[in-house]
Design a protein that fits this description.
The structure is a homodimer of 351-residue chains.
Chain A: H1 5-21, H2 27-33, H3 40-52, E1 56-57, E2 66-67, H4 69-79, H5 87-98, H6 104-119, E3 122-127, E4 135-144, E5 147-154, E6 159-165, H7 172-186, H8 196-205, H9 210-225, E7 231-235, H10 249-260, H11 262-269, E8 279-282, E9 294-303, E10 306-315, H12 320-332, E11 348-350
Antiparallel strand pairs in A: 1-2, 3-7, 3-10, 4-5, 5-6, 8-9, 9-10
Chain A binds a DNA duplex (30 and 30 nucleotides) through α3.
Chain lengths: 351, 351
DNA sequence: TATTAGCACTCGCTTCATTTGAGTGCTAAT
DNA sequence: ATTAGCACTCAAATGAAGCGAGTGCTAATA
């Protein structure tokens, strides 16, 4: 059977209306609101065809039609028109992002929250910082008789620090010396690639500081091992409760449990990383994970050397056009400063 | 009317049974399961008394009794017996806490999650770091031609850092000099109390570094202004969905919205800080906030100089004894190392 | 030949009345 | 003082009737 233009118009109408109302849409509704040049009877026939072709289905025999997964697919791929964000929406996002974001994970937390608020769906964000940083400087600061702070500054200006307890005493003079030594020896290297010889040499050249050097080295490898810190966060889960598809508490629990579970979230998001384009995953199109009846709109972002993915989760019946626009706006707006002066580029890390 | 010992036994039984079943409990149930030496008729009379005294109420005239807020109050204050944590429960908490917690906020995040998992209620935690820290050292590290990192180390070994952009160039020699100067001038002071004279003097003694000094000072006051960074987090909101009191989606939405809202959470928790003892707030006992039908069990904790509050939110019908024990175990176990060697005490902060 | 009007039919909801049963309060007996 | 017994109450479960949105099919129309 041929997918005529008229069928296309009708499919578009069904999806559109179902997205708005969450009610199965009947032929009469379409004839009145969308395809006014045809009678309900004609539309009825076309809808029967569309059902046969797999784009629509009926919850029960005397109800209207709802889109199938396939129906949504062609809708998002070729039917839906681009949504123009309202001024209000852009402002809300800019405001959310304009506040000083200290750490990178704070920034994406803000982004995630902003998207959740603007779209009124749930969001999930993952930061997969590709930290291939090199050491710029190492500093030791004694803070009490038996404690000192190790500070490592990287290339990009990142700072890692740790307070350690020492058995031996280190005074500030020694600390300064040792800082200089360590900086000289390690500067330019990656956190991971400190060779054993280097360690041995350092120890022999700085007698009595064995303990501290060990601590520094182990701290570095520790930190380095955290490459996949992959923080997963989620916001706006409650937003979903206002949709009728989750008025059943069991359904609600199901999805909220997924949103609460970092592992599941992660496995859900990790699948595709198709460039920087927005990626839409509908219903349970293969990729497993129990996001039945849910859709996922993903977008990769990049900021200041870190990168990650942010996504929106909602009912399959979500307002794809608006979600896509919001995500694009935010992710693209992240590279240039999104509402701040030069300040925006200062990355800052703290307790 | 007198609050006889028999009345006490019956009230205890009602509360206990209601906590378990969530169903109004009738006289027959009590006669069979709890107070077997009395007939249901006698218990009926006693219950009528208890209702008159304000400890019990009836949802409707032909139903069993449920505890009033007052009823819960006397239950938690003088009736309930201490719960002994099962081995399984302690193990689960220890495991959750034993992993290396980098930053302090990560640690309390873990604690919050652990309590949520063990109790199966929702938790909320707030860290109100009482940062009365004094400066120990100031370090400047140039990372590129026009960028440098400012690092401030405090008394307690806390580290704050920020990458700044500079118009003028700073080489590492200058940076070391300036670091020493700044450390000498500022060491021992609180982040907030740098006087104008000090700034002026520093600038005159270090010509050409005006810009950097300004940045350092403004960073300090910025950081200082963050005294109330008061990070609020919450976990286990979904847990609540399994309780029948939230099987109505509207009720569920109500509480989950509160849990999602940092401001509301904060105002809810901030009320009492009665020492280090566990504090139970039932229903909407004055203190406002829409936690009607909910109870809140709060406990203050302290770790490594930081302090905060962690709390459990659940239906008024929650298993107070178990929650109290879990919280006490966790909060008290926080000062001594809770499942780790000396390592546990090392505080570490990073990107 | 494509479209449309018309009509019988389906089936999920809502409404309303009835039944059921757990639980109470009261009274009279122990 | 306690208890057995009984009439009464009321929420919740059950089920029948009617409604109405929507369909599929057929016959008339352009």
């Amino acid at each position: 059977m041929e997918f005529t233009d008229r069928k296309r118009r009708i499919l578009h109408a069904v999806v559109q209306d179902y997205i708005e109302t969450a009610e199965p849409v009947g032929s009469r509704t379409i004839a009145r609101k969308y395809v006014t040049d045809l009678s309900s009877a004609t539309i009825r026939n076309e809808m029967a065809d569309l059902e046969e072709m797999g784009y629509l289905e009926q919850p029960h025999s005397s109800a209207g039609r709802i889109p199938t997964v396939l129906g949504y697919r062609v809708f998002v791929d070729s039917l839906m028109e681009k949504y123009k964000l309202s001024v209000m929406e852009t402002i809300r996002m800019q405001e959310a992002m304009s506040e000083k974001a200290n750490r990178f994970d704070k920034l994406i937390e803000k982004a995630s929250l902003a998207i959740a608020n603007v779209t009124n769906y749930a969001t999930v964000a993952i930061s997969s910082g590709k930290k291939r940083n090199r050491i710029k400087a190492v500093q030791l600061v004694p803070v009490s008789e038996k404690e000192a702070v190790i500070i490592i500054v990287t290339n990009e200006g990142g700072v890692k620090s740790k307070k350690v307890r020492l058995d031996g005493f280190v005074d500030s003079g020694e600390a300064v010396m040792l800082s200089a030594e360590l900086t000289k020896a390690l500067s330019g290297r990656t956190l991971g690639d400190i060779s054993l010889e280097t360690v041995v040499r350092l120890k022999s050249e700085n007698e009595g500081a064995d303990e501290l050097i060990d601590k520094v080295v182990s701290f570095m490898s520790e930190t380095c091992g955290e490459k996949d810190t992959r923080e997963v966060i989620s916001h706006g889960g409650v937003n979903l409760l206002k949709f009728p598809e989750y008025s059943d508490i069991e359904k609600a629990k199901e999805i909220l449990e997924v949103l609460d579970n970092k592992e599941q979230l992660q496995s859900m998001i990790n699948l595709p990383s198709a460039g920087n384009k927005v990626n839409i995953i509908i219903g349970d199109e293969k990729n497993g994970i129990k996001l039945k009846d849910c859709s996922l709109v993903l977008c990769n972002y990049e900021f200041n050397g870190n990168e990650g993915t942010i996504g929106v989760i909602g009912p399959t019946r979500m307002d794809y056009a608006r979600v896509v626009s919001a995500l694009e706006y935010l992710c693209e707006g992240m590279r240039p400063q999104l509402g701040g002066g030069t300040d925006k580029l200062e990355q800052r890390e703290e307790e």
